[in-house]
């Protein structure tokens, strides 16, 4: 499990974080499919270069005098790349369409980017409608002084916030993302989500969390001097617990 974690790790970060949503599972599988093809292409090219250097160097072989062109080779090096592209096109298009597909959501989370913090709002969930209130709060980076407290040992530096976004698992969630001042980007690698927050524009994404846990992300758009201090923390809990955890905050 070295390469799988819900927070960034320091092992050169060659692998993905462990998928926690359907979209991220699709991205992970497509990446594995792509890497398999790329590795085979690299091996094939190196083998061809070795064969050419071994048999067709003009100062150690007379085969070059007899070799001019080959129709078979031209057909092969045109057909094989076309077949490879076709094998990549089908899963790629399916993944792209699934990332943009919006189902009927049970919950909408409104996200606003500020310099340099995030604001969240839930207003259309069933208990919000019943009591005619909205759940709105802002998340700020926890300072080093706060993390030095003995009660906060073990929290991630530059990733923890004063409040965590609480979302239910196995629920269709709609993310509505915008910004107040400059460009931001709301990103959580475990969810496979990276959506720009643009002033005056409302971007939309779908999210279906498959397991509970604490997931970390950061703003991925260079938004100013404190760009590196806009962490995102999402606490995903079972749907039956979500109601009781959130309603106490209203």
Polypeptide structure, described:
By secondary structure, the protein is an alpha+beta fold. It contains 5 helices and 10 strands. Strands 3-2-1-5-8 form a 5-stranded mixed beta sheet, with no helix packed on it. β1 and β2 form a beta hairpin. It is elongated, with a radius of gyration of 25 Å. The mean pLDDT is 82.
Write the layout of secondary structure elements.
Elements: H1 22-55, H2 71-100, E1 107-114, E2 117-122, H3 126-131, E3 135-139, H4 144-147, E4 165-168, E5 172-179, E6 184-188, E7 193-197, E8 203-208, E9 213-218, E10 231-237, H5 239-247
Parallel strand pairs: 1-5, 4-10
Antiparallel strand pairs: 1-2, 2-3, 5-8, 6-7, 9-10
Helix pairs in contact: 1-2
């Amino acid at each position: 499990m070295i390469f799988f974690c819900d927070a960034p790790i320091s092992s050169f970060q060659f692998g993905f974080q462990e998928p926690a949503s359907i979209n991220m599972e699709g991205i992970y599988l497509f990446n594995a499919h792509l890497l398999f093809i790329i590795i085979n292409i690299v091996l094939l090219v190196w083998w061809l270069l070795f064969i050419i250097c071994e048999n067709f160097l003009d100062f150690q072989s007379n085969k070059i005098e007899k070799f001019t062109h080959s129709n078979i080779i031209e057909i092969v090096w045109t057909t094989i790349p076309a077949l490879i592209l076709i094998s990549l096109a089908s899963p790629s298009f399916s993944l792209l369409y699934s990332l943009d597909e919006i189902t009927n959501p049970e919950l909408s989370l409104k996200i606003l980017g500020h310099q340099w913090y995030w604001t969240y709002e839930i207003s259309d969930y069933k208990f919000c409608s019943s009591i005619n209130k909205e759940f709105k709060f802002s998340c700020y980076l926890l300072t080093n002084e706060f993390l030095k407290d003995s009660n906060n040992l073990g929290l991630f530096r530059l990733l923890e916030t004063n409040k965590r976004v609480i979302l239910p698992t196995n629920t269709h969630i709609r993310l509505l993302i915008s910004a107040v001042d400059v460009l931001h980007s709301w990103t959580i690698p475990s969810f496979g989500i990276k959506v720009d927050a643009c002033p005056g524009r409302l971007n939309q994404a779908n999210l279906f969390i498959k397991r509970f846990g604490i997931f970390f992300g950061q703003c991925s758009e260079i938004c100013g001097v404190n760009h590196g201090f806009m962490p995102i923390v999402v606490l995903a809990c079972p749907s039956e617990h979500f109601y009781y955890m959130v309603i106490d905050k209203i």
